[in-house]
Amino acid sequence: METVLITGGAGFLGSHLCDRFLREGLRVICVDNLLTGDPDNIAHLLGNEYFEFIKMDVTKFIYIPGRVDYILHFASPASPIDYLQLPIQTLKVGSLGTHNVLGLAKEKKARFLLASTSEVYGDPLVHPQPESYWGNVSPIGPRGVYDEAKRFGEAITMAYHRTHGLDTRIARIFNTYGTRMRLGDGRVIPAFFSQAIQGKPLTVFGAGNQTRSFCYVEDQMNGLLRLLFSNECEPVNIGNPAEHTVKGLAELIQKIVGSDLEIEHHPLPTDDPKVRQPDITRAREILGWDPQIDLEEGLSRAYPWFKRRVATMLEQENS
Ligand code: UDP
What we know:
- By secondary structure, the chain is of the alpha/beta class.
- The protein folds into two domains: 3-177 and 215-238, Rossmann fold; 188-212 and 242-276 and 294-318, Alpha-Beta Complex (UDP-galactose 4-epimerase, domain 1).
- Helix content is 39%, strand content 17%.
- The protein has helices spanning 12-23, 80-85, 87-108, 144-164, 188-197, 217-228, 246-257, 281-287, 295-318; strands at residues 3-7, 27-32, 51-55, 70-73, 111-117, 168-173, 176-177, 202-205, 211-213, 215-216, 236-238, 243-245, 263-266.
- The strands form four sheets. A seven-stranded parallel beta sheet has the order 3-2-1-4-5-6-11, with helices on both faces.
- The site of uridine-5'-diphosphate has 16 residues, from helix 5 and strand 8.
């Protein structure tokens, strides 16, 4: 039976990948050290005979017995708060971890897909960002630990491809949202949902004129699978090109949650990119992929889950 191994499989995107591959009829091995991953994300899969969870840190030597056809390397702290709090782990999983997982892919003759990121473009001087743009990253800034780790990840992936002929894919993932994001991971959508649901002011960093382009998780899964099953070895942007200001996002969340909340301005974090929008020409042309779910629709779909999650959090706090 075709088998896929997903590192970071208990995380936000990783756990959605586990679900998706099981639905596609593959056997799934989920590897996670649960540093930022959450066992709740895969709890519903534990009884499935085609699913296996292995608690493992991929920055150490890894050994997996048996057949593996595809490896998707998604292990990494991935929100600005996480990688500011875990700078060394972030650097290690992007470098040592990627090296180990590439070694495993080589051993198994598996196809390898790297979860890269729009952060490789840093605070971009080209807008929107095509894959040919080399980026504007501060190597020593606080975000550098993530950005440079992912840039190194891309470099070593291409080196394995060129040197060992490994079958590789690189997805440059732009901001993605949906169920299973951690409420406290600091990202703007879980932060605003959790604040709005509790009737608290929305924390807009800076004036809120910075832009992001948000992709609904289901669209992201479709893009990633198309890339994996394509023949494209060069990086491909996977994201929704509809660009929104953070202020605009706050207004949309207010509309969906149905509350008229105060906006509280906080300082803009260091190196926070001022704009971000994927140029997805390559994804459209090579993968025939285009996101289908606009921001208001995606937020409305995710809202009931966030509401339940906030309710559970409040119950736990009060017990
Ligand atoms: N942001 C904000 N309020 C928050 C959290 C984030 O205004 O409570 C802003 C942040 O400064 C950035 C944007 O929202 O400009 C997206 O931040 P996020 O952490 O979601 O992801 P990033 O794209 O920066 O990695």
